[in-house]
Amino acid sequence: MRPEDVVNLDAYPILDRSDPARTALVERLRQELEENQFVSLPDFILPAAREQAVADAMEARGRAHHNNSNRNCYLHRTGDPSLPDDHPRNIMLSASTKMIAYDRFSDQSPVKLLYHWEPVRQMVAEIVGVEKLYDNEDPCQPVNLLCYETGDRSAWHFDSVNAFTMTLMLQAAEVGGEFEMVPNTRTDDDQNYDYVGRVVTGQCPEDAVAVAREAGALCIFRGCNSLHRVSPVVGDTTRVMGVFVYENEPGIVGDPEVNATVYGEREAVAG
Question: Are 142 and 43 contacting, i.e. CB atoms less than 8 angstroms apart?
Fold first, then answer.
């Protein structure tokens, strides 16, 4: 399979940067991201590519690392004893997912072909408003397959330092697995702790936006200052999602100790 066999180029004409249709597409998506803090690109990949990516995930599922943890919405496993018990930094939330690291599934997987393809990377750079993006060079991080089975969920959280997050829905759950987001929960200048506390304790459900995530949809969102979560999954169908990590400079790798908590100990990797 070639990258051209993965991306739906009829709907997303991204190859020629001088094409007016591409210019109009990227500008529309950039504005939507700016206004809403998220943008969804339905049918971004072709059906055969999506089916192959799901098959790759099912083949590698036994090599996934099961993350089952209690963390606050800042992704910390411990709170701050100097703060009140009801402070959001001391409210621990349960999350459960199965993470398939980059080095645990096929190099020929459509999600890897998509991730490493320059036309996609350049399109994303323009949508998020940077001149250039680079592939992550960590053995685990560049693109992952994230699986949710019955009972799995992602609790309310902020993404740590990422200016944007990019995901690709490959297979939806039968029930649940909804992606919800509260845009602009905080700002760079105001942690807005009172409001964050109300969101994570379920006091303002009307503020959560359900982001359309049908199979084949690519989503780019600003998760650093917008709380988001995935509701619990129910049913026999595994929810499968690709998660992509691009960098603002070349040569970026992750902290091995952090990787071990997310992906498991690496000495277990075969080959």
Answer: no
d(CA 58, CA 74): 30
Q: Which residues of the chain have pLDDT under 50?
A: 268-271
End-to-end Cα distance, the chain: 24
Residue 104 · residue 112 · CB < 8 Å: no
Which of 149, 202, 157 minimizes the C-alpha distance to 176? 149
pLDDT in tens, 157-197: 999 777 899 999 999 999 999 999 999 999 999 999 999 99
pTM above 0.85, yes or no: yes
CA distance 164 to 38: 9
CATH architecture of structural domain 3-262: Sandwich (2.60)
